[in-house]
Every structure is written in structure tokens, then in C-alpha cells.
Amino acid sequence: MFPASSIPDLAHVIQMAVAPVFLLTALSTMLAVLTNRLARVVERTRKLEGIILERPEHSRLRRGELSVLFRRTVLCNRAITLCTLTALLICVVIGLLFISDLMGFNAALWVAALFVASMGTFILALLSFLREIRIASKALESSAQKILQMTDGRSD
Predict the structure, then answer these.
(1) Which domain holds residue 32?
(2) Of 51, 131, 143, 148, which alpha carbon lies 20 to 30 A from 116's?
(3) Is 22 inside a domain boundary?
């Protein structure tokens, strides 16, 4: 059967699991940000698709924007997938901490490896998020410059 864990041992395991639990909170916030960004990109994409289908003769500039939105969608989806994988790995770390204590075996190597893997997936998610933000910022800057050029010399 299972070796009897003492209350102080269990309390120590709970203390060790607190840091990964805080990381799960940060990941849930990150996932909320990413899903909101993705939802806005999807809304804009659907709107642009409708405009392009209604007036294909005026769609050249809008197709460029649609291409940018597609790249942003790919990056948001990648970041969401990686954040979800990170959360799953952290959950496995927490579970492994408790199971190893209850069953009396040393899982330090597994816990460390899984934690390092979770940090790796989180870094990749953040890099995807950063790329998505940079693409969005460049698109906004380009659009603003075009509007300024078109309206340059006009009186307000």
C-alpha cells in the first residue's frame, strides 16, 4: 500500500506546489489576453472578407490586410497552444509532487525536467505573442502612414 505521509511532509509538498500554482494563474491571464486578441483578429477578418466579396474591384489593399490578419491568427493560435501545453506540464509537475510524496519515491529529476520543459514552451509562447504584437504594430503604423499621406495637404 502507500507509505504513510506525515502532515509536515504533506505541508512541505503543498508549499513546493504553490509556485507552480501561481504560474498557472499567470498562464490563465495570458490565455485570456491571447483569446481576446484572436477574437478581435477573427472579427476584423470576417468584416474584411465581406467587404472584399461585396467590392472585389476595390480589394487590392484589403487583401494585404487580410494576409497580415492571417499571419496574426497563426501566431495567436501558436501562442495559445503553447500556453495550454505549458499549463498542462505545470499540472503534471504539481501532480507528480504529490504522487511522489504519497508513494514515497524520488521524482526530483522528472519534476525538474517537466518544469524546464514547461518554461521552454512558455518562452516559445511569449515569442509568438511578441511576433504577433510586432506584426500588428507594423500594420497599424503602415496604415496610419498611408492615411497621413492621402490626407497630407488637405485642410481640416
Answers:
(1) 27-149
(2) 131
(3) no
